[in-house]
Design goal:
The chain contains 15 helices and 15 strands. By secondary structure, it is α/β, with parallel strands linked by helices. The longest helix has 27 residues.
Length: 481
């Protein structure tokens, strides 16, 4: 729902009910928000219009608005009217709970209502997750895992580790990233609980609330609230088939600013930035003193020839922070990621990380060290690349077979995703709801962009080929209806 769109409804309170009318109205509005029918950011009608449509006195609506405001569900101002600012947390509590006043007071913003719905529905038995950015559980390397876990028999303890993580793992990562041109020392590596924690650390450690983060449009970061919760602004930079249009990044700005980019197998579009564009982007940002966060989550998931070298490979002055993870290549549940940056940055992030969680899982770090040092990780990567290539080829055939000229998309050269655009306007909220009814879970493109996209992020990584075809068939049926 567009933030400026006014909530609409056809409902009247039940005057024969024992529930007071003002309480019925509160329950109705809460149910609309909780169900996702009225999204966070949307505008409520004026109090005069609400009173007229519901056939009640203006004073009744004033009482309703006062209580919803006190509970942190709506916010009013003289210029912008009344808008919804809370998602479901306050609404799920008992109306008499003393926590009602507190649940939305924290600085961390709630997820978009659509993201919350996706997160809940992903665990519905039997649902076909057509947008999920994870590997199919069937691709988990069970036998290799048993070998790696066996190495824990020789571990003397699983005590806390130093702030930057297990030294042996950092050494193994240094050797691993050298294969694609990144030169670092163990002191320039921080082990995190996945790349997501790395982004959170950056948002609270090295950026202020007055900062701006430039991102591709669309971008994975837009689906999160990590930077926004810290008061940091996100500003979109358009892309073409070669990647982000670097010359559209403002050359001068008095604010503290940084660029976040996923140059390889981009999430959600699947685009891989050309080597020419990487070089131009790096030089432009260096010339304008704009540091870069390079997210390499999909770095190693190329299909045929190896993808262009990371931007970090060009960095001689510590201008690029590089993020790596095994959540997309091995297992998200392992919760192992890493940051490669200059030592002062690593020390700063590591200090705050120790305040958050005293370090990533010691067991996970030892197991990942074994995977890297024995060559099992490279062996597994070869298998995953082949599997993803087969699934991608199959996905492209199915989309063309069942959706044909109704959609447009590029065939990716790696990663998990196809950015599927509909050639005619599709009501995305309705499509999402109808797909859930037939057992298909979608990731609408709007959650990744700054404006309506008329697109879906399609993933071929999670479903088997048979499941993927069935999901696309059901989706095609909805589109026809």
């Amino acid at each position: 729902m567009n933030k400026k769109q006014t909530c609409t409804f056809e409902w009247l309170p039940d005057r024969s009910s024992r529930i007071p009318i003002y309480r019925q109205i509160i329950l109705f509005i809460s149910a609309q928000i909780q169900s996702g029918a009225w999204e966070v950011g949307s505008q409520l009608p004026s109090q005069r219009d609400l009173a007229a449509k519901m056939g009640v006195n203006r004073s009744t609506i004033t009482t309703v608005m006062d209580e919803l405001t006190a509970d942190g569900i709506i916010e009013s101002n003289f210029k912008g009217g009344t808008r919804i600012i809370s998602n479901t947390w306050a609404l799920l509590l008992s109306e008499n709970s003393i926590w009602n006043r507190y649940v939305n007071l924290g600085s961390f913003k709630s997820n978009h209502a659509m993201i919350q719905a996706i997160n809940r529905l992903e665990f519905t038995p039997g649902i076909l997750r057509l947008g999920t950015g994870e590997l199919d559980p069937a691709l988990f390397p069970g036998e290799l895992w048993k070998k790696a876990v066996k190495s824990l028999e020789n571990i003397q303890s699983l005590n806390y580790l130093e702030a930057s993580g297990l030294y042996q793992l950092r050494c193994a990562i240094v050797q691993h990233v050298k294969k694609f041109g990144i030169l670092a020392t163990p002191d320039q590596v921080l082990i995190t609980s996945g790349s997501l924690q790395a982004l959170q650390l950056i948002s609270v450690c090295i950026l202020s609330a007055a900062s701006v983060v430039y991102t591709e449009a669309p971008t994975y970061l837009k689906s999160l609230q990590i930077f926004q919760s810290a008061g940091i602004s996100l500003e979109s930079i358009p892309m073409d088939e070669e990647g982000i249009l670097h010359h559209r990044i403002p050359g001068k700005d008095s604010r503290t600013r940084i660029l976040y980019t996923i140059p390889t197998n981009h999430n959600p579009t699947g685009i891989t930035m050309s080597q020419r564009r990487r070089q131009a982007l790096f030089e432009y940002c260096a010339g304008n003193r704009i540091p870069i966060i390079e997210d390499g989550a999909y770095e190693e998931l190329y299909f045929d020839n190896q993808s262009p070298r990371p931007i970090k490979q060009m960095d001689q002055n510590g201008n690029v922070i590089y993020l790596g993870t095994v959540s997309k290549t091995l297992s998200p549940g392992l919760r192992i990621g890493w940051v490669i940056a200059s030592e002062p940055i690593i020390n700063r992030l590591g200090d705050v990380k120790m305040q958050m969680d005293y370090g990533a899982s010691s067991a996970s770090q030892w197991i990942m060290t074994e995977f890297l040092n024995t060559g099992m990780y490279e062996q597994h990567l070869d298998q995953i690349r082949a599997a993803m290539k087969n699934r991608c080829d199959h996905a492209v055939r199915m989309l063309r077979q069942y959706l044909g000229d109704q959609v447009s998309f590029r065939t990716p050269t790696g990663g998990f995703y196809i950015w599927l655009r509909f050639n005619k306007k599709i009501p995305m909220q309705k499509l999402f709801e109808e797909a859930v009814k037939v057992g298909v879970l979608l990731n609408p493109g709007d959650i990744y962009d700054y404006a309506p996209t008329n697109a879906l992020r399609i993933s071929y990584s999670y479903l088997s080929c048979e499941e993927f075809e069935e999901a696309v068939k059901r989706l095609a049926g909805i589109i026809k209806r």
